[in-house]
């Protein structure tokens, strides 16, 4: 039996750009568009030509897409103007794009209040604007703004807007839950009623996430008859975001309720790029990936409880709804004070550490983990520190350097221009490369200064550290008072795109930071197979 076709429309470059704190450059937009095209989406909305310099520049030299159609976004013609006399619409229609998506009012309340025009005039604007796009040879789409609110208040008028777009030649009419307030049961009911009047293969869904239901609403709409789904990478979008394409895509393709009925333009083999594409966006935005994001998060297939790990080892389906490798992710077995022997064994295997099940060192390592977590360490979020502890227990980690002492000073003073500044300075004395090394580093804060001093001391000894960078630093106070125990979690990365977490705990925040920094550098050297640069010191 042949399957029905579903079409995937990504609006990261337009809707996603409205996210607070997100500011795509033209090159960012090109990079994201090419990644989406490789993944196999049907439509990629590039932005609104004429609305801002970035979008205009993007459409002046758009990327060459192999699979997807590039879409220019705009709005229907303004009231009181003809199609040919609306500069904004003309710029959208003239953009170098395969398709045009025009947004217009479908809620009579907005037509009356915001536009202040007769409702019939709004229908004319929709019809004529869509027709103009078709005449230009563009595939035309109509985004029915606030459709669900409009349908609840006045279904006849909301449907009249849809009909006007179809009469103008729209390939798609997209039902928008613009304020994100509609729940799945209502979405399914309303989409089903619309699909009973108009062909389902002409209906799309555009959901916002203000009630945390954008993905659920999108899936409900497909179940009710919609055949195009719009969304953004990682759920970017204004306010609470849009439907998350990273969750929508695998749900449609891997869950039998949809996979048995529908097909998308994405080959199942291309789903292995899903995690990579999600993290590419975070890298461009210079932010840490959401470790708990469905399907692609670092913790999406992480197992902590001992009983869970035992079950997963026997049959992964027990606690994993899909094979993580299908979406380019992998299984993580975490260790903590809740861990059992099976956690330790599984985690050692994941790290590539071969050890017999009855090796007494496994029990000692488990006891050490539980004791250290009692003291404040957390290894379920600092897997690199756990691996180092395990390998040190097994005698596998060389001593690349030995820090004999360090000192950190923070000085608040006036500079030569009379400005009040705070300067951090760190001094490190270490044994490395067969000699004593004493270095001083300055930085933006004591931890950065300490990092700089450590790097300078190792300069020239280990080329492996040239691309090491610290990307995140988190501090948690575990107990109150002036003698509080502090836990520091550091996230590091290198030129390969690999990221790892290390942890330090102390009543002194600088000492905790030092321990996490020390582990980060050591892990990088061990992972890259660095050879010790001479003896640490004469015995």
UniProtKB/TrEMBL annotation:
<dbReference type="Pfam" id="PF22617">
    <property type="entry name" value="HCS_D2"/>
</dbReference>
<comment type="similarity">
    <text>Belongs to the alpha-IPM synthase/homocitrate synthase family.</text>
</comment>
<dbReference type="InterPro" id="IPR013709">
    <property type="entry name" value="2-isopropylmalate_synth_dimer"/>
</dbReference>
<dbReference type="InterPro" id="IPR036230">
    <property type="entry name" value="LeuA_allosteric_dom_sf"/>
</dbReference>
<dbReference type="GO" id="GO:0009097">
    <property type="term" value="P:isoleucine biosynthetic process"/>
</dbReference>
<dbReference type="GO" id="GO:0043714">
    <property type="term" value="F:(R)-citramalate synthase activity"/>
</dbReference>
<dbReference type="InterPro" id="IPR054691">
    <property type="entry name" value="LeuA/HCS_post-cat"/>
</dbReference>
<feature type="domain" description="Pyruvate carboxyltransferase">
    <location>
        <begin position="6"/>
        <end position="272"/>
    </location>
</feature>
<dbReference type="Pfam" id="PF08502">
    <property type="entry name" value="LeuA_dimer"/>
</dbReference>
<protein>
    <recommendedName>
        <fullName>Citramalate synthase</fullName>
        <ecNumber>2.3.3.21</ecNumber>
    </recommendedName>
</protein>
<dbReference type="InterPro" id="IPR013785">
    <property type="entry name" value="Aldolase_TIM"/>
</dbReference>
<dbReference type="InterPro" id="IPR000891">
    <property type="entry name" value="PYR_CT"/>
</dbReference>
<keyword id="KW-0028">Amino-acid biosynthesis</keyword>
<dbReference type="GO" id="GO:0003852">
    <property type="term" value="F:2-isopropylmalate synthase activity"/>
</dbReference>
<dbReference type="GO" id="GO:0009098">
    <property type="term" value="P:L-leucine biosynthetic process"/>
</dbReference>
<keyword id="KW-0412">Isoleucine biosynthesis</keyword>
<dbReference type="Pfam" id="PF00682">
    <property type="entry name" value="HMGL-like"/>
</dbReference>
<dbReference type="InterPro" id="IPR002034">
    <property type="entry name" value="AIPM/Hcit_synth_CS"/>
</dbReference>
<keyword id="KW-0808">Transferase</keyword>
<dbReference type="InterPro" id="IPR005675">
    <property type="entry name" value="Citramal_synthase"/>
</dbReference>
<keyword id="KW-0100">Branched-chain amino acid biosynthesis</keyword>
<comment type="pathway">
    <text>Amino-acid biosynthesis; L-isoleucine biosynthesis; 2-oxobutanoate from pyruvate: step 1/3.</text>
</comment>
């Amino acid at each position: 039996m042949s399957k029905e076709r579903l079409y995937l429309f990504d609006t990261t470059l337009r809707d996603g750009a409205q996210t607070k704190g997100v500011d795509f450059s033209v090159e960012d937009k090109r990079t994201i568009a090419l990644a989406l095209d490789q993944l196999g989406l049907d439509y990629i909305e590039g932005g609104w030509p004429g609305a801002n310099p970035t979008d205009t520049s993007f459409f002046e030299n758009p990327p060459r897409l192999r699979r997807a159609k590039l879409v220019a976004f705009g709005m229907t013609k303004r009231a009181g103007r003809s199609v040919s006399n609306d500069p904004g619409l003309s710029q959208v229609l003239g953009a170098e794009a395969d398709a045009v998506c025009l947004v217009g009012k479908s809620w009579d309340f907005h037509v009356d209040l915001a536009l202040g025009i007769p409702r019939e005039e709004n229908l004319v604007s929709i019809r004529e604007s869509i027709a103009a796009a078709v005449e230009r040879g563009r595939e035309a789409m109509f985004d029915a703004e606030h459709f669900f609110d409009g349908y609840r208040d006045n279904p006849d008028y909301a449907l009249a807007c849809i009909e006007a777009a179809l009469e103008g030649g729209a390939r798609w009419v997209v039902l928008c839950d613009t304020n994100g307030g509609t729940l799945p049961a209502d979405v399914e009911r309303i989409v089903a009623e619309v699909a009973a009047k108009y062909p389902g293969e002409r209906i799309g869904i555009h959901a916002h996430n203000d009630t945390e239901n954008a993905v659920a609403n999108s899936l409900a709409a497909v179940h009710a008859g919609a055949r195009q789904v719009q969304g953004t990478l990682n759920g970017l979008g204004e306010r609470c975001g849009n439907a998350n394409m990273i969750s929508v895509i695998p749900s449609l393709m891997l869950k039998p309720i949809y996979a048995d009925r529908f097909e998308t333009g994405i080959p199942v083999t291309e789903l292995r790029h899903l995690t990579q594409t999600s993290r590419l966006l975070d890298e461009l935005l210079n932010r840490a990936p959401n470790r708990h994001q469905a399907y692609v998060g670092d913790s999406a297939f992480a197992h902590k409880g001992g009983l869970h790990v035992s079950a997963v080892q026997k049959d992964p389906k027990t606690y994993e709804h899909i094979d993580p490798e299908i979406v380019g992710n992998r299984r993580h077995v975490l260790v903590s004070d809740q861990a059992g022997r099976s956690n330790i064994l599984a985690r050692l295997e994941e790290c590539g550490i071969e050890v017999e099940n009855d090796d007494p060192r496994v029990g000692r390592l488990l006891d050490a983990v539980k004791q250290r977590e009692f003291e404040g360490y957390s290894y379920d979020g600092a897997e690199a520190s756990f691996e180092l502890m395990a390998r040190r227990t097994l005698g596998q980690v060389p001593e690349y350097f030995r820090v004999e002492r360090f000192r950190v000073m923070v000085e608040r003073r006036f500079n030569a221009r009379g400005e009040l500044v705070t300067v951090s300075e760190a001094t490190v004395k270490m044994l490395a490369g067969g000699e004593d090394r004493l270095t001083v580093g300055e930085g933006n804060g004591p931890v950065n200064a300490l990092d700089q001093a450590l790097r300078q001391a190792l300069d020239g000894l280990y080329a492996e550290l040239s691309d090491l960078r610290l990307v995140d630093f988190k501090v948690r106070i575990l107990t109150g008072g002036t003698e509080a125990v502090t836990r520091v979690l550091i996230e590091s990365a290198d030129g390969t795109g690999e990221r790892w977490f290390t942890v330090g705990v102390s009543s002194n925040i600088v000492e905790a930071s030092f321990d996490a920094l020390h582990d980060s550098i050591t892990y990088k050297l061990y992972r890259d197979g660095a050879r010790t640069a001479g003896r640490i010191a004469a015995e």
